[in-house]
Amino acid sequence: MESKTRLDVNGQLTLKELPYIIRWNSDKCTRCGQCTSVCPQKAIEPAVLVQRLVTSEGPMPLPQAVRQVGQGIKQVTDIERYCVGCGICSQVCPNDAIFPEYNDANKFAFHKNQGGSPYKRGGRRNSTETSTLDKLKFTRISMLTDPALDAGRHEFHIRTLLGRNLAPGDMPLIIKDNELGLDETVFIPPVREIFPIRIGGMSFGAISPHMWEGLAMGVAYLNEVENIPVVMCTGEGGMPPRLLKSRFLKYFILQIASGYFGWDEIIHAIPEMKEDPAAIEIKYGQGAKPGDGGLLMAFKVLDLIAKVRGVPMQVDLASPPTHQTKYSIEEAVAKMLTSMSMAFDFRVPVYPKISGTKTATAVLNNLARNPFAAALTIDGEDGGTGAAYNVSVDKMGHPIASNLRECYLNLVKLGKQNELPLFAAGGVGKTGSLAANAAALIMLGASGVDCGKYIMQAAAGCLGDERNRCNLCNTGRCPKGITSQDPRLYRRLDPDKVAERVVDIFKVADSEMKKIFAPMGRSTQLPIGMSDGLSVSDKAIAEQLDISYAC
Amino acid sequence: MCRLSAIISDSYFSTMENIMALETMKEGHDGSGLGLVLRDLGGEFQGLKEFPILSGICSKEGLRVMDEYMVKLGFKTKHLWNPRIKDYRGIMKIRGFYFARAYEYPEWAEEASPETQSELLTKTSLELRDLGKGQDQGDDSIIIYSFWPDLITLKEVGDPLDVGLFFGLDKKPLLAKNIFAQGRQNTNYTINLYACHPFFIEGFTTMTNGENTAFVPIREFLSSRGFPGYVGYSSDSEVFCHILHYIRKELKFPLKYYKDVITPLFDREMDERSDKAAIELIKRVLRPLTIDGPNCTIGTDIDGTVFMAQDSKKLRPGAIGGVPGKYALMSEICGVDSVVPERDRSKDVFPMKYDMAMIEKDAKEIKIWNQKHGSMSTVN
Fold first, then answer.
1. How far apart (Å, rounded) are the C-alpha atoms in residues B115 and B17?
2. Which letter does DSSP use for residue B270 in this model?
3. With contact defined as beta carbons under 8 Å apart, do A379 and A281 qualify?
4. Which of A155, A191, A527 sits opposite B284 (nearest CB)?
């Protein structure tokens, strides 16, 4: 028979090992039980506690302490049910009696690999260091030597081009009577004029129907009412069939990735499409998790998703890390770009997306030689993911700033900086500075940027952060209903509110970019590659990015 | 703001007219330099129209190196012009040997095509520039501004009037039918002579005031075209000249499209243009060449047509006035008054944001190309 007080508690954790510790105030708690029922991790549970109770009664009251058995809240120490710090308990508590507190000294990483299965999660790289993008400053301010522009008065054209631009010498121009005309028998690749901040690929499946609908409504409103031509990438997994055949398709970039999920529906819908999509993105890599393919876990593969993707319900949908049918970069690029271009009769720009990598310039050089390559998106290490191995998210990948800059300068060497637009992603708006990060990347050479996490946070209140808060996207138990396919959860998210916020976000980004570009004297074209406008107070970064040092 | 003074005439006139116009427009400190480009030359160069003229400055050692090199290439000196330097001790420093030297082409190039001759002249001037770098302490030993038939360039740091007097242009005038002069005003004190306007490349000239905020992307675009002459860029305005060369010589666009390249219309403004499809494409393909101003640019095309164009918001002044036979294109109206006081002022032209004013070599009239309406009007 075991002793009641034996101390061999191997395998059991104390609260101090966990990343978040629940602070619960017994005096304020009304014992309503909402926190325990809402907790996505079941990290807290009702418990019977022995409590010290102080009472003062009678005509000459003196405080008297008694111990008595009562009900309360207890945090469990089971590593599978650790508190993720989402704070949804605080949100539902009627009396501010509970909140999670970050435990800086946690030992979480030592324990979250039980059962021989690596820790998988959603979210972003857990690092609170200031990103290079946030270190960049705009220092070329026009004042007296040249009149600064007025963001409120002058007309600004915050637009970029998505699509392959011809080399100047290849323009099919005819000169007649001192006037230029166009030889219309010559093919000119499709080019779209769009707002330079795009909503990056978040799949219908990874995010909830309400979230997806909210984003789509916001994008449509921005285009049709606000005249801000924002486009949004579908991510892998197709899109609702109704939208595929709608006039709104032109605001969407259809992504094809290594699992080809959703493409059966898309290909079959082509004859009935009223509009062309904005572009086709071929996903070769994702900045948040290089080496991982797409991953939609079984909990999220419910009825609608299964239908759109053409798969059975409740199975893990893992896309391979690479396109399995390709054996070389030349072949991969040629085959994918031309076949996708052909599918849409060469009316739609087709471009690859890769994760940030030291080999990006090799990919780029290959694309520069391929006339069907419409752009290149490079996704840096600070990108987000709906599901990935923790080790991939935290340790794999290349920061976007120097990767993008290196690629841009490489294009400058080739003289193709305007022919092949670069789009940068991964950490844009990481700390809330969406417009400033976008402007900095543009001035380093990007034609535009993608953002995903920023939108999740700003439009839907995603709780994730760089200290591993929440990050339950992969489990289908998103407490805000953003990345869940469970109607009980995604009902918490109002698609109209999401759409309103999407509109807010892009209107503000438009205004803020004007506020950045105006004092630098740029308004009619985006200052792509205007690196003389940037400085940084770190000499090594300045040298690497070939910008000036300022302190 | 730098001062711009261009005069085009059907008869020869003196550079001092330009310099006096600059003096009229002077405001504040102006010691940053004077640049002059003369074409369609008179005086002692009048009979030397077909001979390329090398313009520049060199030190004693630079002169030796330059002469050796030119002999090696087969160029023979035909005529040498030197300014009559006035003793301006304390105000101006004599930098070296100022020259404009007409050469006979090497024998093999005499009958060559204009393209081959043009290539030879560009290549030679670039090589001479390289030879001159860093041979003397403190300054380049060979500074080359231009090498082109019937064209002279002269530049020096200082107040434009002082520079003109220093070169003795009042006593021994240089005459031409097309003269550009720019007085740099209120710029930084460390001045590189290569940064002085006007700029020249293969028969094209421009001068500009204001700052070019889009300089770096434009420079990178031009530098990566593979044309050896797209170098230098000591001034952010040099790109205006190279853009002109690029669209006229490389892309062979008619001159009026210069405006569509540097200040393209918004898409919604293009409806009146019969060449809408072409300008839409040009706007996309030459996107990095868009300027944002504030700039007033005055230039000369290879055929001698002079033009003035503004940035798309018209953030700088610019005025043209004159009589048939002589027109002045100035950054301010008082400059025009100085050159052509007796004129019908009601016919003065102030090019606005859509306008590109052009005066052909015969200086008969001002043509105004309106980019938005796609129309050409004439003032004479």
1. 34
2. -
3. no
4. A191
- DSSP, res B247: I
B200 or A12, higher pLDDT: B200
Determine, for residues B281 and A188 on separate chains, whether the beta-carbon distance falls below 8 Å: yes
**C-beta atoms surrounding B173 within 10 Å:** 17
Q: Are the beta carbons of B275 and A525 separated by less than 8 Å?
A: no
- Answer whether A175 sits within 8 Å of B226, measured CB to CB: no
Question: Nearest CA to A380 among A355, A359, A361?
Answer: A355
Query: Distance (Å, rounded) from C-alpha B161 to C-alpha A107?
Result: 78
If contacts are CB pairs under 8 Å, which of residues 204-263 in chain B contact chain A? 210-211, 213-217, 220-221, 223-226, 250-254, 256-257, 263
The DSSP call for residue A483 is S
Q: How far apart are CA A446 and CA A439, in angstroms?
A: 9
Shortest CA gap B182–chain A (Å): 17
* Cα of B69 to nearest chain A Cα, Å: 31
Chain A residue with minimum CA distance to B227: A415
Expressed in angstroms, the distance from the first to the final Cα of chain B is 29
Reference B151, options B95, B208, B205, B76; nearest CA is B205
According to DSSP, residue B253 is labeled -
Summary mean pLDDT of chain A: 92
What band does A296 get if pLDDT is binned at 50, 70 and 90?
confident
- Rounded to 5 degrees, φ, ψ at A114 are -70, 150
For residues A190-219, average pLDDT = 95
A171 CB neighbours in chain B (<8 A) are 251, 281-282, 285
CA distances from A381 to A50, A296, A431 (A): 48, 20, 15
Reply yes or no on whether the pLDDT at B137 is more than 60. no
Q: Which amino acid is at B260?
A: D
Residues of chain B contacting residue A529, judged by C-beta atoms under 8 Å apart: 216-217, 220, 288
What's the pTM? Answer: 0.94
Residues B150 and B325: their CA atoms lie apart, in Å, by 20
Place of tokens 């041979």: B135
Flag whether residue A142 sits within 8 Å of chain B, measured between CB atoms: yes
> How many residues in total does chain A contain?
551
| Cis omega (within 30 of 0) for bond into B294 | yes
Task: Decide if B277 and A182 are in contact by the 8 Å CB cutoff.
Answer: yes
Q: How far apart are CA B214 and CA B205, in angstroms?
A: 20
Q: Which residue of A has its CA nearest to B246?
A: A168
Q: Which residues contact A25 (CB under 8 A, 6 or more apart)?
A: A96, A97, A98
* Mean pLDDT in residue range A148-177: 92
Strand residues in chain B grouped as ranges (E)? 3-14, 34-41, 52-58, 76-81, 97-104, 142-149, 151-156, 175-183, 199-201, 204-209, 296-300, 306-310, 319-323, 326-330, 355-359, 366-370, 375-379
Q: B211 and A525: CB-CB below 8 Å?
A: no
The beta strands (E) that lie in A139-216 are given as 160-163, 173-176, 179-182, 191-194, 197-199
For the cut 80, the answer to whether the pLDDT of residue B27 exceeds it is: no
Q: CB contact, 8 Å: A148 with chain B?
A: no
Q: Which two tokens stand for residue B360?
A: 């052909």
Cα torsion angle, A293, A276, A326, A446, sign: negative
Cβ of A146 within 8 Å of Cβ of B266? The answer is: no
Which of A412, A415, A525 has its CB closest to that of B290? A525
Q: Residue A374 and residue A337: Cα distance in Å, rounded?
A: 9
Q: Looking at the predicted structure, is the pLDDT value of residue B190 above 70? A: no
Q: Whose structure tokens read 């079959």?
A: A268
- Asked if A133 contacts B243 with a C-beta cutoff of 8 angstroms, the reply is no
Structure tokens at B38: 């003369």
Q: What is the pLDDT of residue B138?
A: 46
**Contact between B254 and A418 using a beta-carbon 8 Å cutoff:** no
Taking contacts as CB-CB distances below 8 angstroms, the residues of chain B near A178 are 254, 256
Tally C-beta pairs within 8 A across A and B.
Answer: 124
